[in-house]
Design brief:
A hairpin with a 4-residue loop joins β6 and β7. The chain has one domain: Rossmann fold (3-Layer(aba) Sandwich), CATH 3.40.50. The protein is elongated and about 50 Å long. The protein is α/β, with parallel strands linked by helices.
Length: 123
């Protein structure tokens, strides 16, 4: 399984907290202060956002929505936020991503959907 990644965009308060508890988290953590840095990374590496969540503030949410799947973006609209609730929600999103990714297996001209237990012919 790939490591789970958090990309934090321009939320200094959260950066400080994450730095303090980094050793207790099971995430690869990347901090971005500029939106263009993150977008450049996304454009350069097609696998950069695999198994990832981008944590953004409300003003950056809409500009990133077009760059990636909206389910990969977690928008924090107000502080304070309980860290335990934040990580519960992030974990739930990552589980949903893995469920979707792992559900389809291509076999020649067929797709095996593990979640629905169906074999479908590709047209």
């Amino acid at each position: 399984m790939h490591s789970q990644k958090l990309h934090i965009l321009n939320i200094p308060e959260l950066d400080k907290i994450i730095i303090e508890i980094r050793d207790y988290l099971n995430y690869e953590i990347n901090n971005f202060t500029e939106k263009k840095e993150l977008i450049k990374k996304i454009d350069e590496d097609s696998k950069f956002l695999e198994n990832s969540i981008i944590i953004v503030n409300q003003k950056d949410f809409f500009s990133l929505k077009n760059k990636t799947n909206e389910k990969q973006i977690y928008c924090i609209t107000k502080f304070p936020i309980k860290i335990s609730n934040l990580f519960d929600q992030l974990n739930a999103r990552l589980i949903q991503q893995n469920y979707s990714v792992q559900s389809n297996i291509n076999i020649n001209k067929y797709i095996l959907d593990i979640n629905s237990r169906m074999l479908k012919k590709i047209r």
